[in-house]
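#random but structural
TW: two for the price of one
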Amino acid sequence: MPSASEAPLDLAGPAAPPRRNGELVFEAPWEGRLFGLTLTLHDHGRFDWEEFRRRLIREIARCERQAAVGGEPFRYYVAWRAALEDLLASKGLCGGVELDTRERELAARPPDHDHGG
């Protein structure tokens, strides 16, 4: 299995992450953290990359349809998060209730909790 730095990210195609000038683009800090978490879990053998990629493609299509109907912009990392949550739940690594609880705990922390400010 490739290491996190060698994860077979799509450079083009349905699962390709957003890029600007060849560099990955994260619109918010949580997106970069989610990306890193996913690669770390893959690097530690928690899942096969193709398994995640298939779910990501499915979630991208679902989110694009939802955005088109609702008139809201498509957000790539919302689809990424849904794909990862689905994969982790299917493998029994972390279920929906656990994720929801942890998300609420993290959201309740002050904005600069980890930067000494």
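TW: number two ↓
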Amino acid sequence: MRLNRFLANSSGLSRRGADDAIAAGRVDVNDAPASLGQRIEITDVVTLDGHVLIAQTADVVVLFNKPVGYVCSRNGQGSQTIYDIIPDKYQKLKPVGRLDKDSSGLLLLTNNGLLANELMHPKFQKQKVYELELAKPMSPGDLKKILQGVKLEEGISKFDELIENGGNKLTVSLHQGWNRQIRRTFGALSYNVVRLHRTKFGNYVLPSNLGYGEFSEVDVL
């Protein structure tokens, strides 16, 4: 196994972060400084900053009901991060995709790179479902524009389905996954999204009894 892959699986670092740690001299293999591109065996002892690392081989998938006010990166740059409230046993898991600081709901955490890639890569077209609330109700004309598609920098933003739940509340499903796509799509028509809550991602559905900040460990689907 390549050393950077082992580090990513066992420490929570990205592959690039693992290479940076190796280059900085923070990693030893069998008490000798590690080198970039190095391969290791299962019997080798790897340390990061003097701490022995143990590979996490079993697949772990966790559903997390992310609260508003937390960012999904490890470095919050002054903001609280999901890792401030994630239990120690899940600290090495990585989020699949992201929810912005002002959004809530289903966030998947896993150590399964193949699953993460399948959920995130555009070619697999995994559907995501969101409940949202606007600052004001939509006019019939603007609703029609949303359904036809709204031009953004990346192209035409188009939802798979839009359901009106009364007043200014909507349910939106889409398989595109551009940065802050839903907020920008409605913003292009001068509508402010005041609540955005994800309830489904691919085959994974947020349990109705899972409160904000709570976790549920599930099988790979």
